[in-house]
Amino acid sequence: MDIHTDIEPRTTYGYVTVLTYAMFFMFAMTTDAVGEIIKIAKGEMGLTNMQASAFHWATMIAIAGSGIFLGFLADLYGRKRTIILGLVMYGLASALFFLGESFYAYLILLFVSGIAVGIFKTAALALIGDITQSTEQHTRKMNAVEGFFGIGAIVGPLLVVFLSSRGISWTWLYLFAAGLCVLMIAVALKTEYPVMQENKGKPTNFLRTFGMLKNKYALGFSFAIAMYVASEVAIFVWLPTLLTGYTGTQITMFVATYAVMIFFIFRAAGRFLGIWILNLFSWTSVMLIFSLMVFGCFLGSAIMGQTAAVFLLPMSGLFMSMIYPTLNSKGISCFPKAEHGAIAGLILFFTAAAAAIGPLLMAFVADQFGGGDMTVGFYIATGFSGLLFLSMLYNYIKNPAATILQKANVSQNGD
What we know:
CATH class: Mainly Alpha
Largest sheet: 2 strands, antiparallel
Order of helices and strands: EHHHHHHHHHEHHHHHHHHHH
Strand content: under 5%
Number of strands: 2
Number of helices: 19
CATH architecture: Up-down Bundle
Number of domains: 1
Oligomer: single chain
């Protein structure tokens, strides 16, 4: 089916936009706190690196499966219904965390919450296409949305550290998330979303999402995003473990203590800054320079050791900030708006798969070849960042998506 959106009043767009920001803030608050949670859970439950990494990969595997198998729901049933369904599932799973006591109970809840994220995130990403009128505006809006994700990623670890310092269980973080879900569901039910008109045509289902695997733009952007995500999650999942037991000067100890939080602050600030930077420079040149700086931070840490990692890895957040939302936006914009839910689901699959496999591979290498030392695991992450840079170098030289993005501006948004 072909879907077209009518122009709605700007106040409607405002409410929808705020709800989208809130959703990204909420799930970032829980998913990006996983590094601090792993550090606590390893001690409480006596887990190895491989076992503890399940707190991350269980969610990511579920998001990946949900993205590729259920991403079409936003195109078939509409953005609003799909978002509310995802929020209901996420809220229930988060509330049940407070009742959980075992490692396996937590894994089941993380898996369910991951399915929920895949459902409402693909719908939210498709919605961004509905309320923007050009690929450039889409990219700026995506950076703003991911900026609020970045704020949630700061608040989550901060709350876990705060709760832990007072002897309070980290599961209270999920209870807070459940409360936010209830509030967002109530607001979403009363908010008018852009009207979607449906015409008869090719049916929308998960087979269409799989069909996109044949598209060179889908695969190209998905690969680059996967390399970015594998680099990014290495920091917030394993940096606390890498710096465990680190000793140094007063300044380095302070930075090491709050390394993940500093990383998230840089990442959030950079995403809001990206709205301005992308108005001044071409996105291909920004991606090239920033990916080079990210690779430099990882390579410098690998060569110079822990003290360098204390400063370089958190600082990489500033250079990472614009890469994911920009690549995500450009990849989605290569397709008609009627398929934005499906392509968002496909990209989300590669995003979540990389987020699951990357840290798991780092944990395996660290356990098998480093005797549990995560320094060895970060060598793998350096390789991911190097592949990201090479992808952006090719993108800068060839600019393979230039023509299709120009056509998208005319055919979809220029009317």
